[in-house]
Specification:
This protein is α/β, with parallel strands linked by helices. The chain contains ten helices and ten strands. The strands form two sheets. The protein has an eight-stranded parallel barrel, surrounded by six helices. It has a two-stranded antiparallel sheet with strand order 3-4.
């Protein structure tokens, strides 16, 4: 299976538009250009959301296949992950179909979404199908308690496998979606309780995104940065674009942990 990249960029997400930031990529050509710019700054993975002609979030296996083909040509060294995020628009059956038929080697899935109105045996069979097809699923955990849910619906051999991929979302349910590096501790304690050592990454919201991601980096985790979660540098400045966020994050993570030196 495709390994989880060390630094993934999530350039647009499902909700923000150019009204939030003029450099947020909406069309496929804009996403491709953003991918190139972020790869040049050191990002080795892309978390892909697509929009329809009206700029709305869309999950479509055919559109994903077309986008993946173009991105593989444009940024051959980048790992490409598609989202199955429902955003209240898609049923779990549709999400499962997209995951299995988009041609992606990396897919992100939230357990709390994929179990909606779905029997446990169907969910377990779906995860097994992904594994058998070589599709690496990164499980989205919004709270530490989601790890218990995952254990209950994932085949045991997949849950304890060293290549289990997780992403911890810090601050999704806090006021104003503001993250704090200390939010990570609950997730790490949950891993200890379950006695597993997965391949994990982190994403975070707001001005503290950089601090949270650097904390994850120094603890051996991987990082997902970009306009899906935050538009801001650590000092509160709005980033010029996604590549600017990648550059600033890499600079911050390379600096001593007690350094307050701003990125260039």
């Amino acid at each position: 299976m495709t390994a989880l990249p060390a630094l993934m960029v999530a350039p647009n997400g499902a909700r923000r538009t150019k009204a939030d930031h003029p450099a947020l990529p909406m069309t496929l050509p804009e996403i491709v250009a953003t991918a190139r710019a972020c790869a040049a700054e050191g990002a080795d993975g892309l978390h892909l959301h697509l929009r329809d002609a009206q700029g709305r979030h869309v999950l479509d296996a055919g559109l994903y296949a077309e986008a993946l083909a173009e991105l593989r040509s444009a940024v051959p060294g980048m790992a490409l992950q598609v989202t199955t995020e429902a955003v209240g628009l898609y049923a779990s059956e549709h999400q499962r179909h997209v995951a299995l038929h988009s041609g992606a080697g990396l897919v992100s899935i939230a357990p709390r979404e994929i179990v909606t109105d779905t029997a446990q045996n169907i969910v377990m069979r779906f995860y097994q199908d992904c594994a058998e097809r070589g599709i690496a699923v990164q499980h989205i955990l919004y709270e530490a308690g989601d790890l218990e849910l995952l254990r209950n619906v994932l085949p045991p051999t997949l849950f304890t496998a060293p290549d289990l991929q997780l992403i911890f979302v810090l601050g999704r349910y806090t006021a104003g979606q503001q993250s704090d590096p200390t939010d990570l501790e609950a997730f790490l304690k949950a891993l200890t309780r379950e006695n597993i050592a997965p391949d994990w990454a982190l994403c975070a919201f707001g001005v503290a995104e950089t601090a949270c991601l650097c904390r994850a980096h120094h603890l051996g985790g991987k990082m997902r940065v970009g306009f899906e979660n935050s538009l801001w540098h650590a000092d509160g400045r709005v980033a010029r674009d996604n590549a600017d966020r990648v550059r600033a994050l890499r600079f911050a993570c390379a600096a001593p942990s007690d350094s307050n030196t701003p990125a260039p």
